[in-house]
Amino acid sequence: MTRTRTRTALTPPPSPLPFNTNLLLLLLFSLSLSPRESLSLVDFHFGNCSLPVVCGGLNITFPFYVRNRQPSYCGFPGFDLSCPNDRPVITLSGDDYVVRDVFYENQSLRISNAALHDDNSTAFSYCAPGSLKNLTLTSTLLQLSPNVTSTLSLLYNCNITPRADELLNYRISCSGEEEDESGVVLGIYGDGKDQEVIDAAKECRTLVEAPVAAEWIGTVEIEAALKSGFVLNWTASNCSACEATGGKCGFDYEIFHYQCYCPDRPHALHCTPTGNNQARLKIGLGSGIGALAIICLCLCIYRIRYRQQHSFLKFRSRHASSKSSLKADLEVGNVYFEVPIFTNGELEEATNYFDSARELGDGGFGTVYFGKLRDGREVAVKRLYERNYRRVKQFMTEVQILTRLRHRNLVSLYGCTSQHSHELLLVYEYIPNGTVADHLHGERAKQDPLLWPTRISIAIETATALAYLHASDTIHRDVKTNNILLDNNFSVKVADFGLSRLFPNDVSHVSTAPQGTPGYVDPEYHQCYQLTEKSDVYSFGVVLVELISSMPAVDISRDRHEINLANLATSKIRNRAFHELIDPNLGFESDPEINRMIMAVAELAFRCLQQDKDLRPSMGTVLEELKAISSGTHEPDKSKDVSDDNSAGQGKNPPPSPECDDAGLLKNMKSPTSPVSVTQKWGSSGSSSVHSG
Fold it and tell me: pTM of whole model > 0.70?
């Protein structure tokens, strides 16, 4: 019988606080400065963003920032300006637009196409078909203001027919145009859906729709209307609360969301209210020096008493109940695990009281709703079904993991409700493009199926996220295509960490009851109750098969031996029947390069789906092989050699795969596969489509 170390549920005693002499000297030096100098040393972001940049007579401040004159963290992503010739310019859909006014109080700005501005008093170029282009706003951060903006349709190269003669009052006189009828340019107020524009467009070769201020509707002063510009509304975090407490608004690119920079401490949610009472500040600093001396004395006493109390703390930690460990979690003021705490009322308002029309998806633990916070951020709010000990634990696990880990391919957590509130709610960034499952075998798959280059990119980015989790001693435990979200650029965001486990780096596995989604669960984990990093590798192998086959992980309409996709795939790959597995729409049979990559991915998936976990590659190896497959540097013979794979993980050297019984009878049994049904004790996370979290 092979003995294996398992994780014991201990609460380790606190380690002694380090006595850092350098830190002490730095604090004493800081306190010796004047109050303003002392505070300004804390967060350099505050000083860098404290003054607006003046360009073209406008004060440019958050959410905008001027490139090369302000750090990018002083503004919001997508709100960067340039200032050529002392003129603020923003680039939209490839064209430059001059910013004429900024109205911070109602979050709007007036802009006009830079092609219509002329510093040298030469003729305007709007009459040339190539000078103006259609404005495309791909981001939800900037939108046309519908109340004050209209559309001017410019129709070029129009043939004058009896129908077009009725529109001659809109003919534009353009200098330099030839007098023949093919050069006629028409201008009509209205967009391409207006019948008048539709009729005129039949007589013209080119249509450009230019936004203009609604006040110009009905006038023939086309040049003045275009030069006047139009209004855009922006959506970004509201800076007023931050500025009211003496802070400066910015953007934290590490956690990728809005940040209030403070003069007195770095990265706080709110700053200390400012005032002119310097005496109070000096008294506070004097008290701080005294307190620092007391702290130094306490540290010395603490170091002596620590050794005496160490044994008692260790004994007490072993007998602490799980309930008391929950109470030990950090929740102070409006911050929990270092993320903001929202009230139930705020999130009810954001989701229109959990309107069913805003429902994004429904999972095993909760329903996800689309919401919009008061600061303008679009979010996904997960509402847990019930409140009990188990749900609170899952709630806390997800908050703890997502605040500890930051990665571009992991969904960001914006905040949550208090663990003591009557409803447990989690607030994530909103990922608008659905899940990989939607695009493989959902409604989106019928409308716009994923091409192979996108699929291999999804595989690489998902493997990158999982390799990062494993390097951070975290097992996801519910890897599936429903938990892989896609943004509008089809970049991956791995979500749903309610079942995840922190994995100690000094053990080979964690013994725990199997949990997960049918069809994705590691069969060895299901049978032996031993969770390892290779359990995620197995689940990812199922995801790889879905990417090359477009089939769901479990489908009861298939033959009884092929209901489980992992079972179907290993059988087809072992028998080299790739044409019965691979989606024919991917170009597998017509494109040699795609054929090479899909064959290599199928072989890699086969290795991930091995019943013995020690025969599976580590997630780090999987990632490197996917990159090599995509770049064309993959060596097929090398991929079959897994002898070194078991040590290619995150610094671990696991022992041979343990047997679940003492007699090793499992070796004589048929190899199990991931279950297609879940007993009550599992608590599956469900397989419904959930768009965030």
Answer: no
